[in-house]
Each structure stands twice: as structure tokens, then as C-alpha cells.
Amino acid sequence: MQFGQSLLYGSLLVLMASRLCHADVLELTSGGRLSGTLAADTADDAEILQITLLTGAEVRIPASLVKEIVRRPLKFEEYEVRARHIDTTAPAHWDMAEWCRAQNLDAQRDYHLERVLEYDPEHRKAHYGLGHTRQDGEWLTREEFEASKRAAGFVKFEGKWIPAEKLDQLQASSASSKAQAEWFRKVRVWFNWASGRDPRRQADGLANLKTIRDPDAISALIQFLGKSEHADVRGLFIETISQMDSPAKVPPLAQLGIYENVRTLRDQAMASIPEEGSETAQAIFIRALRDKRNLIVRRAGAALGRMGDESAVPALMRALVTTHTYKVTVPVQSYGGTFGSDGSIGGGGVSLPPDIIAGLKTGVYDSVQTVPLLGARGATKVVPVSVQQQNLEVLTTLRSLTKQDFAFNEKAWQRWWNVDRQQSKLAPDLP
Questions:
Q1: Is residue 188 classed as helix, strand or coil in its secondary structure?
Q2: Which residues contact 398 (CB under 8 A, 6 or more apart)?
Q3: What is the mean pLDDT of residues 351-356?
Q4: Are 224 and 188 in contact (CB under 8 A)?
Q5: Higher-confidence residue: 122 or 10?
Q6: Were 258 and a residue from 59, 239, 299, 427 both cysteine, which residue would form a disulfide, CB within 3.0 to 4.6 Å?
């Protein structure tokens, strides 16, 4: 671009910016056009149109010679001025494409990106700007790339290319996710009604919650009912999902069967597990035999007894005696004896009084975060203490399932299972 042309081009842009915030275009019947600003008082049925051109000149033209009046932002006029003075090089068209991107002129940007590629076929940014993809050393347009993916057996689902054989599965999963989100909205509303002070709203909310039968609602029911601090609300949760005809209800019922703190609710959950869901429930109970809390281990042992399935025997044998760690408050000054990690006195460790030792071994402190030391004098500290605990519920279930009794002697149980029963190996703990 010559200096004189550049000066004229710059002056025209300054003039446009000073006169206009938008531009009017008169499309003439002759095929020409006039760009500028129509007079502010121009009526829709005016016979004469007055327009101030970009140069500042005023023109009056009969309306009969005008085919169409187009009102558009100044950026279109500025683009046309810039485009008329652009150099025929890749860098010039790239700069123009970047200006169009900043002005949200998408069609014009694509045009200049294509001109860039005419001068520089390997211009990566121009290719990416046009949505091209490099595949096997070749640049493909969006249409060409999509055609190649389809030819390879892929389909597009929610913006991603997936193997065609997985489409049905993902569509079903997506529909389920949307249904679950809708249930979260409904359950939240009904739960708020049931928790409010308006008696009529309370009744409506409670009735709506009780009539839910769609398994897609289980996640929402767990959030708003199953995790409630009120036992009666958790009871409503058990009552509601128990009436669903779906295997999806088994995991939450099994979890409540051992983790719920209210005995009657645990029993209600256990009684609601259908026979066809016993395998799923048993797998959950077997995993719970490894829980850090001894209370849960014992409940899981009892729950497996209710299942009555001998396949749980190997896992039960390993859970006869389990080790659990408690936080215990102890005096800095020693009691004279020490409590070893194996549950014995005198092993070198923390000194504990006999009543705490007995309480730890019998599970008295299972629900206590830190075991207190009543009547302690002087400085104290909190220390972790590991305790081996014999689980009577596990032993009771083993006796019931096997009609054998080797007490808490795990090796004797294993010898009976592996040798006397001629098992080739001890079955794994987890399914």
C-alpha cells in the first residue's frame, strides 16, 4: 500500500468514526448503493430521501429509485473500506481476519482465512480458524473430517465422536441423567413443602414423596430424605424406595441395613431387600467386613447371617478378629502398665486404665470419636491405640452357616474349609 493511499484510507476511517455510530445503506434499483446516514426525521412514506454520505456530502434522492434501506452497524462500512485497501498477501489477509474476529464478523473472517490459505497452504492458525483438522499429514475441512469419522464407524453424540455400537448405551445413560436432574428439582420442592409450616403444603409434599416409583428419583431421595438427621424422614425414604420395582433400590437399602444408627430402621431396610437382590446386598455386606469401625463389622456379620449364603464363609472367617484404631485420652504420667497394639498389657506403648481397656475390647467406644479419661489429673494427650476385637456376630453367623464351631480360631476354620472340605484354595474375600 502506497503512502498516499494509506493516508487517504486512514483519513476516511477517522471521518467515518467522527460522523457515525451506525451506517444506513440505500440499495438502488439501478444496482448501485449509497452509504451514509439518513436524516433523522425521514418518514417511512417519504417521497424524497436525504442521506449524508461518508464523505460528508448530502444527497437527496427520490424514494422510487431506492429498492431497499438497510440499517447496519458502522463496522460493516469500516470493513468494506479496509477490504478495498488490503494488500494481496497472507499476512495482510491474516491481520484482516483477526480484525473481523474482534468485530464478530464471522463470514468475512472466513473469507480472509481462505485467502490466507491461498497464499500459504500450511498456515496452521488459518486452518484451525476455519475448523480444519490435520489427519495423516493432511488438512481436512470440517465436512471432510466428519465424513472420515463416519466411514470409520463413529457417530457424533453430544459433541463427541464415539463408536457407533456404544450409541444406544450412551443415549440411555444421557436420558437417565436428565431424568435424575428433573427428579432433583421435584423432590426438592416437595421436601420443602413437607418441611414447611403450611399444613396443606405439608400434606401435598408428603403425599407426592410417598407416591414416587421411578428409580431415577433414588439419588434425589437419598439426598433429601436418606441423609436427613431426622429418623422419621429416613424411615419415609426406606418406605418410598422399598415400593419401587427396580434393582436400583437394593444398594441403598443394604447400606442402610448396616450403617443406619436406629435399630428399627436397620431392620426395616433389611426386610425390604428383595430375594432377587440378595447377591448385590451380600457383596455390600462382605465389603463392610473390612470397615474401620468395629460396630459396622459386627453389623455386617449379622446381616450376612440373614442372607444365609455359604459363599460368604471365607470372608467371615477373616473377620472373626479384626484390628481397629481408637483415639484415646491418656495422662502424660504413666499408669504403670502399657497397652500393646495386640490388645495385651505390658507391650510397650501407652498406659491405659483397666476400664478403658475393657471398653475398647468390647466395642463400648465404637461411636465415640475420642475416648475420654474421666477423673484424669494433670496433663493429658490424645494417642491412637490399636485394638484386636473378637466379633461375636461374625462367629454366630459362621456357626449358623456351617454347623461348625472353632470359636475365634481362624486357622482352625481355614483348616476345616480347605482340608476337611477338600477345597483347592480359600475363596477370595470380595466378589
A1: helix
A2: 313, 316, 317, 320, 404, 413
A3: 72
A4: yes
A5: 122
A6: 299
Does the pLDDT of residue 372 top 90, yes or no? no
The band of 422, judged by pLDDT with boundaries at 50, 70 and 90, is: low
3-state secondary structure of 242: helix
Q: What cell was used for 82?
A: 479496509
The per-residue pLDDT for 18 is 42
Packing angle of the helix pair 294-307, 392-402 (nearest 10 deg): 20
Which string of DSSP letters, residue by residue, matches 318-360? Answer: HTSEEEEEEEEEEESS--SS-B-TTS-BTSSSB---HHHHHHH
What is the longest distance spanned by two Cα atoms in the chain?
A: 114
Write the CB contacts of 325 (distance below 8 Å, at least 6 apart in sequence): 292, 384, 385, 386, 387
Task: Identify the helix (H) or strand (E) that includes residue 386.
Answer: strand 380-390
CA torsion sign for 244, 246, 248, 249 is positive
Distance CA 172, CA 156 (A): 15
Check residue 16 and give its pLDDT.
Answer: 42
Nine-digit cell string for 339: 497397652
In angstroms, rounded to a whole number, what is the distance separating the alpha carbons of residues 126 and 110? 9
Residue pair 231/262 in contact (Cβ under 8 Å)? The answer is yes
Tens of pLDDT, residues 44-82:
778 888 888 767 788 888 888 888 877 767 777 778 778
Side by side, which strands form the sheet with 48-53? 58-62, 48-53, 33-38, 22-28, 66-73
Q: Which of these, 50, 46, 47, 45, lies nearest to 60 by C-alpha position?
A: 50
Helix (H, G, I), strand (E, B) or coil at 71: strand
How far is residue 209 from each of residues 91, 167, 215, 229, 260, measured CA to CA in Å?
Answer: 65, 33, 13, 18, 21
Summarised one tens digit per residue, pLDDT across range 193-231 is 988 888 888 899 899 999 999 888 888 898 888 888 889
In sequence order, which residues have a C-beta less than 8 Å from that of residue 145 and are 6 or more positions away? Answer: 132, 133, 135
- The set of cell numbers assigned to 100 is 473481523
SS3 at position 151: helix
3-state secondary structure of 22: strand
